[in-house]
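<context>
A single protein, sequence plus fold
<entry> Chain with its tokenised backbone below
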Amino acid sequence: MAPTKANKKVSYKFTIDCSGPAGDKIFDAAAFEKFLHDRIKIEGRTGGLADKVTIVRADDAKITVTANQEFSKRYLKYLTKKFLKKHQLRDWLRVIASDKGTYELRYFNIANQDDEEDEE
């Protein structure tokens, strides 16, 4: 008899920290949460999150995405960048991986560029 694979329950938990821009009132975390609900594709279709993916927004503008099946962290980065582009925030904000399961929205560091231009 050939060995069979045991069905393991996989769980992926990713966090998107948008507390910086949300604190400055330029980023709407509630709209971003709704965007994720509407746009995340499961098995090639949108709107079928059901019990496979849950999206929860904390009070401090941290959005946690928990998936019970294969789910890519890179896909969350793609959707975040798409949301920023749609709301014309892509020129000022960037998405950075702060650790293995977390993305963070940060401002571009424009102050250093202004100093370099002054020196020239």
Summary: The first helix runs from residue 19 to 23. The chain is about 35% helix and 30% strand.
